[in-house]
Amino acid sequence: MGFFGKKNDESIIEEKPVFKSRGPQEMVDTSKVDTVVGPGSTLKGDIHSRGTLRIDGNVEGNVRADAAVIVGEKGVVKASVIANHIIIGGTVHGNVNGREKVEILSTGRMYGDVTTAAAKFVVAEGVIFEGRCTMSQTDAAKAKFPKVERHAEEQELAAASRGGAA
Predict the structure, then answer these.
(1) 23-61 as b/e, with b when 16 or more CB fall inside 10 Å?
(2) Considering its fold, how many domains does the chain have in total?
């Protein structure tokens, strides 16, 4: 696929690992990337990809993909990002919502809040992450692992360690 979904005889996307820091077992087939914001490009506004979106340039606005959003090592995003799977190897200033999974690689910098499914938030060593993380449980997980209420004594200990009263 070429620019804006038009078919080209020559492919401008090479087969290569998504990030230099990942091993061969963790490579992503970049021929599956539907939309690319290349290095040196700046996009201001909202972008929606029905497939996978890779950002190696600069994007300001709102980013949404039906499949995945990959922020390359030199990519800079100042936007909210929503996708099934989000991989951050560059810099993101804004909130992200990974419906299935969010990964921040060792080269990643995340300044904002992360929302994702429980046990599907991966943060590599050396990451800069300034924000909050909310991981939601599926209904099946809620049934399997019901919320445990704290006993009054545990609540008092927790309050005392924070410097307040229960």
Answers:
(1) eeeeebebeebbbbbeeeeebeeebebeebbbbbbbbbe
(2) 1
In-domain check, residue 159: no
In a domain, 144, yes or no: no
Contact (Cβ atoms closer than 8 angstroms) between residue 136 and residue 119:
no
Per-residue DSSP letters for 19-50? Answer: -TTS-GGG---GGGEEEEE-TT-EEEEEEEES
Which DSSP category does 161 fall into?
Answer: H
The CA distance from 11 to 31, in Å, is 9
Tokens for 94?
Answer: 């804004």
Take residue 80 and report the two structure tokens written for it. Answer: 């909210």
Contact of 101 with 120, CB cutoff 8 Å:
yes
Task: Give the pLDDT means over successive 10-residue stretches in the chain (166 positions).
Answer: 47 44 42 87 94 95 95 96 95 95 95 88 93 78 58 70 62
- pTM for the model: 0.68
- The parent domain of residue 106 ranges over 3-136
3-state class of 90 per DSSP? Answer: coil
